Predict the structure of Chemotaxis protein CheW.
Amino acid sequence: MAEKQYVIFKLCGEEYGVAIQHVQEITEHKRATTVPNVPKFIEGIINLRGNITPIISLKKKFNLQEGEIQESNRIIIINIADKQVGFIVDDASQVLTMDEKQIENPPELLTGIDRQYIIGIGKVEEKIIILLDLEKILTEKEKNEIKNM
């Protein structure tokens, strides 16, 4: 049985996971500099060790209830189209190893673009963890906008 490791993070009290091999790093939340005329879910840009990094609010992208930024907020850094991109999450709590038996395919009721980035549903004890491919969250047009920032 193949096991995979996932970085587990929270949004609005729900748990999500992203494959650890896609995560470059997790950093504390930093206030982003606003960039005009970008999609609403882009919070802005930060300077992360000399790299200008666009920051995306997953809450805005998923149309979830937004709240105040807390000390527990984190930014998960991944690479999309050869550009470092950060995703703001409520908390990035742990790395979890899951066996293939613990992961089911996304439910049939998910259709369209949502199904592209939800790669599975993890079941750990009584918890359900929605497994995401953060690279597929953005459309090609959105990736190009970010690449050109």
Notes: The longest helix spans residues 140-147. The longest strand covers residues 3-11.
